[in-house]
Specification:
This protein is an alpha/beta fold and 376 residues long. The protein is built from 14 helices and ten strands. 42% of the residues are buried.
């Protein structure tokens, strides 16, 4: 298929036809990765053109966060971050190759990492849900304050005046019809010492933030995507506090708009929680990371769910999105290392190896389906 993509206009129609048929069996075939640094933009553009597009990838979620030269809120801009010109290069190559480009800014949770606050809380420390929690001299988990990542207070009267202009700007520059708000691993929410949130229902607080962001995007015909872990009951499912919630936010699954897209991540096993989200009326994509065995099972499950479900349920099973939690430059190094040698980092878990095997299986399944149709 890669060769066909690179030669004349007559043959070019063949992979497009195959892609249309693949869209029916697996509508979303995605990658979620940090946005490249400015110096990595050109290599990343080549990677999109030469590696992602020929693999029939059609969705690219870029975790931008504060690594952009924002003008709506210049106090939150990163002068060394992506420029508008950099982003337009990414937009152009994705448009040419029919890849939906979705930017992400972590909202609500993930406003710090270990001892260091993120840009939002550095500039606006008053937004912190837990300002009384002090960063330890040496970070360890677990710790007495259960500090993993800080959250902003969703009821602070000024927080949305700051974050929503960032959402608007990043969607505009990416020419995006969807936005990923993160919202995973929210450990701090509705804290008893917060003067605004104390006593509030944590599920209603979480759902309220989802609805607020959703409604803001909806005004401009944009779709909201979020991670799904806070909507799963970590106690009832046995998934625990990372892949699911043990602080009662899970009930928010019944309180959020049904057109929010859920990215359902599980990395060690292919827990079939996509069925749960679909039964709640939500569209869902399964998200692996660095475990090829789990990723291939998630692909098999998603394909089976679509094949064996009634029409309303079928349309809610969207596909798979590979996640990458290193930066883009490290991933590219690993990807090309695996491409050049099967022994590269042999025996180590790798998002790059997982991605290669997952999309090779997607290609093989699609080719087998085409052969079967021709023989009918």
């Amino acid at each position: 298929m890669k060769t066909l993509c690179l030669i004349g206009p007559i043959l070019l129609a063949l992979p497009l036809m195959a892609a249309n048929q693949l869209d029916q069996s697996l509508p979303v075939r995605g990658l979620c990765i940090s946005a490249p640094k400015p110096a990595e933009v050109e290599p990343f553009v080549r990677f999109i053109r030469e590696e992602l597009a020929p693999r029939s990838l059609n969705t690219l979620i870029l975790r931008v966060d504060f690594n952009y030269q924002y003008t709506n809120r210049p106090e939150l801009a990163n002068p060394s971050g992506l420029s508008r010109t950099d982003v337009k290069k990414l937009v152009a190559v994705c448009r040419t190759n029919h890849i939906r480009l979705i930017p992400q800014i972590n909202l609500l949770g993930h406003q710090s990492w270990q001892r260091a606050n993120g840009r939002l809380l550095q500039v606006y420390p008053e937004f912190d849900e837990t300002p009384w929690v002090k960063a330890p001299e040496k970070y360890m988990w677990p710790n007495p304050d259960r500090l993993y990542c800080r959250s902003y207070c969703p009821l602070h009267p000024k927080v949305h005046e700051v974050v929503l202009p960032l959402v608007d700007e990043i969607c505009e520059v990416f020419e995006a019809d969807a936005f990923h708000a993160g919202m995973d691993e929210v450990f701090y929410i509705g804290e008893s010492q917060c003067p605004r949130c104390s006593g509030k229902d944590k599920a209603e607080l979480f759902a309220g933030e989802v609805r607020l962001i959703h409604d803001h995007l909806h005004e401009k015909s944009r779709q909201l995507w979020i991670w799904g872990d806070r909507l799963l009951d970590g106690k009832a499912t046995g998934l625990g506090e990372w892949e699911a919630s043990i602080n009662d936010t899970h009930r928010a699954v019944d309180l959020i708009p049904k057109d929010v897209v859920i990215c359902d991540w599980h990395y060690e096993r292919a827990d079939p929680t996509a069925v749960y989200f679909a039964m709640k009326g939500l569209r869902v994509a399964s998200c692996p990371w660095n475990n090829p065995k789990a990723a291939l099972q998630q692909l098999q499950d998603m394909t089976r769910f679509r094949e064996q479900s009634a029409a309303p349920m079928k349309e809610r099973f969207l596909g798979v999105v590979q996640t990458v939690w290193s930066d883009a430059g490290v991933f590219l190094k690993d990807f090309y290392g695996h491409q050049q040698s099967e022994e590269y980092k042999s025996g180590q878990k790798s998002a790059a190896r997982c991605f290669i095997q997952l999309f090779e299986e997607i290609r093989a399944r699609n080719e087998a389906s085409e052969v079967k149709k021709k023989n009918l």
